[in-house]
Amino acid sequence: MKYLKIALVTGAANGIGKAIARRLTTENYTTILVDIDRENGEKMAATLGERALFMECNICDEKSVEALFARIKNEYSRIDVLVNNAGIIRDNMIWRMPAEEFDSVIDINLKGTWLMCKQAAIMMRPLNSGRIINISSRAWLGNRGQSNYAASKAGVIGLTRVLALELGANGIFVNAIAPGLIDTPLTQKLPADVREKLIDAQPTKTMGKPEDIAQAVAFLCDERTQFITGQTLYVDGGKSIGAGL
Ligand SMILES: NC(=O)c1ccc[n+]([C@@H]2O[C@H](COP(=O)([O-])OP(=O)(O)OC[C@H]3O[C@@H](n4cnc5c(N)ncnc54)[C@H](O)[C@@H]3O)[C@@H](O)[C@H]2O)c1
């Protein structure tokens, strides 16, 4: 049987995850689109042709993640690339934020990413190869109203650095991408004046596209990309540079 390269993308039913799944499919991966949104996930997988398929999984439920990896082991016996992209926001100033909204953001963005990394590590270690790419956010540097989100995305960067140490000897590279302002259904919902202010605060005076994140993912999992691990790649139009005139 011809060897298939298997990539798994979480949160692939919408937004940035769709662009990542599309890009990896064109890079000759068999792409598993994982999401809790079955309707959009199946629709997206169908548009990508026979090398893409949808698998439903709630990434913050350990049993659901274990069942997903048991199925992948059974059907493919391997995973080459894991992209942890699923994430949510529940913004509010800390004095108005219910503790449940801290818990839900940490549960999905950080614990869900950790659970997926754990199973991927178990499957990748005996193969002595693999790439894990965790989607963090430029917001980990700080955004008002995002104490839960920034903490979760800072956690993702810490997790990435530790896994680079733990898995490096097995030839598994683990990196994070920190997107800035990206034009997705999420940011399209912002009031026009807020969107304009955010764009004006960008050094480039533009928003990024989901395809810009997919390009960074393709670079980090390209076999020609070697010796880069534990890093955070900002794809944010320079916003992370901070103050500047
Ligand atoms: N859009 C931006 O400007 C931006 C900026 C920085 C970082 N990010 C990060 O990029 C990633 C994708 O963002 P997006 O804008 O495409 O968001 P989105 O809301 O369009 O898509 C997120 C996807 O994750 C899925 N999901 C949510 N909870 C899940 C769970 N428990 N299990 C499985 N799937 C689940 C959703 O169903 C959805 O399909 C997120 O991690 C986000 O934090 C986005």
Report on this model:
- With about 240 residues, this protein is α/β, with parallel strands linked by helices.
- It is about 45% helix and about 15% strand.
- It has eight helices and seven strands, in the order E-H-E-H-E-H-E-H-E-H-E-H-H-H-E.
- The protein has helices spanning about 15-25, 40-45, 60-75, 100-125, 145-165, 185-190, 190-200, 210-220, and strands spanning about 5-10, 30-35, 50-55, 80-85, 130-135, 170-180, 230-235.
- Strand 1 (about 5-10), helix 1 (about 15-25) and strand 2 form a beta-alpha-beta unit.
- Helix 1 (about 15-25) packs across helix 8 (about 210-220), helix 3 packs parallel to helix 4 (about 100-125) and helix 4 runs parallel beside helix 5 (about 145-165).
- It starts with a strand and ends in a 10-residue tail after the last strand.
- The model has no long low-confidence stretch (mean pLDDT about 95).
- The chain binds nicotinamide-adenine-dinucleotide.
- Nicotinamide-adenine-dinucleotide (NAD) binds next to helix 1, helix 4 and helix 6.
- Nicotinamide-adenine-dinucleotide (NAD) binds near residues 35 and 88.
